[in-house]
């Protein structure tokens, strides 16, 4: 079973009472060219929080000091589980976002998140996650590998459950 993570750093916005989220424009690998949170595959023996912290350090150079679990998403491809993604939020980090080979980071106001340039499922669960809710979801894709060329066909979501 492939386990992956996504991490969404949040900060109060400079200009108004709103909030910003740090997204990356992914430069290579699964979802290349799309926006997402920093994240990736768990390494053998690594827990999801450890993975989220490592991926955020490697991709954007932020040192995350505390995480809040926000969701667990199961992605199915042609009826089989492709991956389970552990979703985190954080307001606790040090450093400034820096671009890497893999990711171009950008602080974006949460009302301006570019859902039209993200995975097709993201608009269903990310707004609630950015508001502080928890979610468990299942998302069905069809059409064979790779997942980012398959078609998103169905989903099931549960909100405000323990994750
Ligand atoms: C299907 N709908 C989806 N919606 C939102 N996010 C999705 C996703 N499917 C995968 N993701 C995330 O995309 C990241 C890259 O995936 P990942 O397998 O790690 O690819 P990548 O080639 O970058 O590998 P490494 O960074 O080397 O681990 C990883 O955080 C993973 O959770």
Overall description:
The chain is mainly β and 163 residues long. It has a single domain, classed as Nucleoside Triphosphate Pyrophosphohydrolase (Alpha-Beta Complex). Helix content is 13%, strand content 47%. The chain contains two helices and nine strands. Strands 1, 2, 3, 4, 5, 6, 7, 8 and 9 form a nine-stranded mixed β-sheet that branches. It is globular. The protein starts with a strand and ends with a strand. Bound molecules: N6-Methyladenosine 5'-triphosphate. The site of N6-Methyladenosine 5'-triphosphate has 17 residues, from strand 1 and strand 4.
CATH superfamily membership: Nucleoside Triphosphate Pyrophosphohydrolase
Structural class: mainly beta
Instruction: Specify the overall morphology.
Output: globular
CATH topology type: Nucleoside Triphosphate Pyrophosphohydrolase
What is the H/E order? EEEEHEEEHEE
- The tally of strands reads 9
Strand content: over 45%
Counting DSSP H or I runs of 4 or more residues, the number of helices is: 2
The overall number of domains is 1
What would you say the CATH architecture is? Alpha-Beta Complex
Bound molecules: N6-Methyladenosine 5'-triphosphate
Q: Which stretches of 5+ consecutive residues score pLDDT under 50? A: none
Highest CATH level, the class: Alpha Beta
Radius of gyration from CA coordinates: 15 Å
- The average pLDDT score comes to 96
Oligomer: single chain
- Sheet bearing the most strands, described? 9 strands, mixed
The percentage helix is 10-25%
End-to-end separation: 18 Å
